[in-house]
Design goal:
Oligomer: single chain
Radius of gyration: 21 Å
Number of strands: 10
Helix content: 40-55%
CATH class of the largest domain: Alpha Beta
Strand content: 5-15%
Largest sheet: 8 strands, mixed
Shape: globular
């Protein structure tokens, strides 16, 4: 895969027209002409202020810091309507990559297309075997002429996003995860923040929804994300040095020049940070705008939580190895910097054996048992120990590749 997205891709994918017909003649990474044959119109999918998404009230730092500005953003967009000044904004395309999460697509599409500032929404299905997502999109296809979609052979989220950007028509591209839900006209907000500049990467916020009791994996994720936001806001960390993907935008041509996917970064996790470093090296600047909010509908099973932890270890080790000019040589001790050194040595030893998986599952089981007695702090402690153990195991696996 070449780094420049404007280059023609080496093989074709099959695309689906709005009428559900397979079109294998369409160019790779671009929806067929039939998909965009209808003029843009108002979607019959509804997403209005006061709906379910507006009632989401994420806890912690982001919810406290964002809510008032978010309300101003929603109210302002409603009062402005078709503000003539908005015609001077750069056009913006929204790109989403998805795989086997069809149930999330309808509310996301409704939220994105309720914003008249979104030029188009391109959904890229990562894999030719995700028939449920394909079926869902084919049913939604007639609701708004701005929606298009296509399938591509499975290559991972960033490769799918890369192909979506190559197919986009907007001057800006807004890259969204498929499990976030905008709570205001998000594309318009991103475009307004860019103004006429061509060197910005605008990062919005993604606080975790707490409309239902949070599982331990989601609590840990939310804590980590809130701490990330707090660090950005309070210590003036460089946004692109700690790019947290899922709700960010930039110029399409700059995105094509840098390339979302890096052939060198083969890990599942921390590819967004790798992208941030490469964008910074290309002269772009990052800004964090908490008011550009999309609620994160985060959910992880214990098995997925442990699998993700292992992938995080692989990713962080690779990140340090590929960017020595920015990062010091990685020490596994960094994962256990809050625990006594003897405990770290025990965990490091276990992580190098075949018992690491069994030990981490034991910790998770103990945590879940504590959770049944509403001992949330104990549950979180054991889950973090399991997470760190699998991260150490991932670091080891990354080093032996």
């Amino acid at each position: 895969m070449t780094a420049h997205l404007g280059a023609e891709l080496p093989y074709r994918v099959w695309c689906v027209t709005r009428h559900g017909e397979v079109n294998d003649r369409a160019p790779v990474g671009r929806p067929s002409s039939q998909v965009n044959s209808r003029p843009p119109g108002k979607s019959s999918l509804s997403f209005q202020s006061g709906g379910a998404a507006d009632r989401l009230s994420p806890r912690g730092l982001v919810a406290q810091d964002v809510d008032q500005s978010d309300r101003r953003s929603v109210q302002g967009s409603q009062q402005r309507g078709a503000d003539p000044s908005d015609e001077q904004l750069q056009t913006i395309s929204v790109i989403v990559a998805t795989r086997h999460r069809a149930s999330l697509l309808e509310p996301l599409i409704a939220a994105v297309l309720s914003d008249p500032g979104a030029l188009e929404l391109i959904v890229v299905i990562d894999g030719l075997d995700d028939f449920e997502s394909l079926s869902t999109l084919s049913k939604l296809g007639d609701f708004d002429g701005r929606l298009s979609y296509f399938c591509t052979p499975q290559g991972g989220q960033f490769i799918a996003l890369q192909r979506g950007v190559a197919a986009a028509k907007g001057e800006l591209v807004l890259l969204l995860d498929d499990d976030v839900l905008p709570t205001s006209p998000l594309a318009s907000g991103h475009a307004r923040r860019h103004g006429s500049r061509d060197d910005l990467v605008v990062v919005g916020s993604m606080p975790v929804s707490n409309t239902a009791p949070l599982g331990v994996a989601t609590r840990i994720y939310s804590e980590s994300y809130n701490e990330h936001c707090r660090s950005i806001l309070e210590t003036n960390l460089a946004v692109l040095d700690y790019l947290w993907g899922g709700n960010f935008s930039l110029r399409r041509d700059r995105c094509l020049d840098v390339g979302i996917n890096s052939p060198s970064f083969v890990a599942h996790y921390h590819a967004d940070r790798d992208f941030g470093y490469r964008l910074s090296n290309a002269g772009l600047s990052g800004v964090f705008e908490p008011s550009l909010r999309a609620v994160h509908l985060h959910s992880r099973s214990p098995e997925a939580f442990l699998r993700d932890a292992g992938r995080q270890g692989v990713g962080i080790e690779l990140l340090h190895r590929l960017h020595p000019e920015r990062l010091e040589p990685f020490s596994p001790r960094q994962l256990f910097d809050t625990v006594p050194y003897p405990i770290y040595l025990i965990f490091r030893t276990i992580s190098w054996t075949r018992t690491s998986g069994a030990a981490s599952r034991l910790f998770i089981g103990l945590g879940l048992l504590a959770g049944r007695f509403h001992l949330d702090a104990v549950e979180t402690f054991f889950a973090k120990m399991a997470q760190h153990l699998m991260q150490l195991h991932g670091v080891r696996m990354g080093r032996v590749r």
